[in-house]
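ok so for the tutorial part 2 we go from a plain amino acid sequence to predicted structure tokens. step 1 is just haveing the sequence, like this:
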Amino acid sequence: MKRLLILSLLLAVARADDNWPAFSVEWNKAASSPADVSFLLKPANDRITVKNGHLVRGDGSRFRIWGINATGQAGLPATNAAPIIAARLAALGINCVRFHFLDKPGALIVGDRNDTRALDPDAFARLDRFIFELKKRGIYTDLNLNVYRTYKSGDGVREHEQLGIGKGATYFDERLIELQREYARQLLTHVNPHTGRAYNDEPAVAIVEFVNENSLVEAWLNGRLEGTQTKKPAGTWHDIPPSYAEALTEKYNAWLRRHQIPVLDETIVSRKTGIQGAVQRLRKNEIAKAEAKRFAAEAAFYMEIERDYFRDMAKFLRDDLGVKALLVGNSDHGHYHSCYPLVASLAQLDVVDSHVYWQHPSYITDPKTGRRTGFRIPNTPMVDNPLHSSVVQLSRTAVAGKPFTVSEVNHPFPHEYAAEGVPILAAYAALQDWDGIFWYTLAHQDMTAMEKTALAHFDFAKDPVKMSQLATGALLFLRGDAQPARRTVSRTYSREQIIESLRLPSSERPYFTPGFPLALPLVHSVRVTSFDGPPTGKFEPISGDEFVSDTRELTWRKGLVTIDTPRSQAVVGRGSGQTKNLRTELQTSFAAVTLGALDNKPVAAASRLLLTVGARVANTGMVWNEKHTSLDKWGTAPTRIEPVTGTIVLTGLESARAVVAQPLDGAGQPLGRLIALQQVDGNWVLDLAQRPTTWFVIQVSR
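step 2 — the prediction. this is what the tokens look like for a chain of 702 residues:
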């Protein structure tokens, strides 16, 4: 009986989310919203270029990207849905969409042929209309090329079933490179009938990316170039098939001869490879103990292949296809290894890019079937771990003189502290003076067909907290409410240091630069100035447990981040906090509260303010495991929000005679009656219990 009672209590706690109010994000409404921040966007007619290390418009003015991904079918919405989705994104301040997974068969590539060489006219028509509708509203486009193309027998590809999506092999196999170029030609020379321009000459196409999360160096370190893959792979990350490993070894030996590098260790010729007298490449379990010159030679080989691939693909796109958009080769994405060999190659292109996820789900796979059976996450707040936060991880990649973007970032659902992600990244991206952020992802399917869809790991489209935060994040980052750091700390790396950084232990992550104070990016801007210079020097230590930006606008102490600028302010994390015009007095243990002026005035003088209040989000019927590290039941629609309880106090509102709050629903429409804030000691108090929601528009009468 006692055991049954305990189990019932645990189940009651796990299912407590069902007591939260349902709060759905709807996408089939075309009405305007009082929270509309599309005034931040400008026409997408200027070609985006680079000047003084940053993205600029045709008139030389600064261009920042506040973007989002559209994955697979989400980038190919129904024709009648395209204007609705585009208008909604503009209202949230989104000014660039990254089209991801278009090359997955069944998306833009025809799915029912025996090859992957034909593009679907119907899918192209939907893409054309969507890009046109985005452009009309001042939203630019980022087109990805090789992301998730799986090959078929008609492609003329060796071992196509064992190849999977070919990560690693896409850099060096001639046939795979040929197919990548063919696809690029089909996509980028296609004329959009709505604009009358091909994508290679379309000003609204701001960026073209070559490959996604695909590094030859990383594949080597992780044992994915050894040639053991003889069955159809079950997932994204796997070894290359045997014939590709043999071809890579042949290329390595030719490279050694061309550079007149002698065999460095007799043991490297002892394994049987099918190549008579060949020097064997290091396997994963041999890397750590390999002699330095031996290791450096092979690392240099992979680095040269990557560098040449990016250079040659850029030349093909520019010279053969006439592509005018900015070019991105790949992203820094593997934060358990040094990024510097890859970034040194990427920096020869127009823009340097990075990805990171706070506690990306670790998936559990059935070894017999290869099917995914579950996931695990640590489920701990980023505010509690500032030195390994997404901010610090991303900051390692920025290069002086190059625009820096983050094309994938998220706190994946069902993370219970995900409300911290958008406001913190928006503020610190501005401090670092980065050029763009793309949240991953809007959705994986047409948003207007998702009304009865449960929240998934990465989709913003159904998340009422993240969706409302996009608007205040746009005010903070796109408008530039948070100032860039007053000081930039630069560092250099020698070529030897770059290569040996690959063998540093994971305890040196994410910077893999011994002696680097990880708090530094929370205080100053950071950049790499050379990958072929003197070794990194010493850094001034940063001590204490509270990190204040040199602009004095951002403060991070364990458990709480405050953002205090004239036009945007926020309190994010545990407990209550205060800025110049915002004080939170909450009973909810963890929440993110953001406040931004909607009329470009300081908060103290603004007539309209946008307030977001976010905590946990859940699906109906969702059940956590006992440790809150996974879900026993995923749940269904509708989405539910944890009500943020307590009061919001607005202080220092100049000459205010009356202040009212209009609650908004998941579509950004008015929800119920206006709420009059109470005046107490010259301050204005909003009792959040009056209307559970994630956002309000505040109107101040003077």
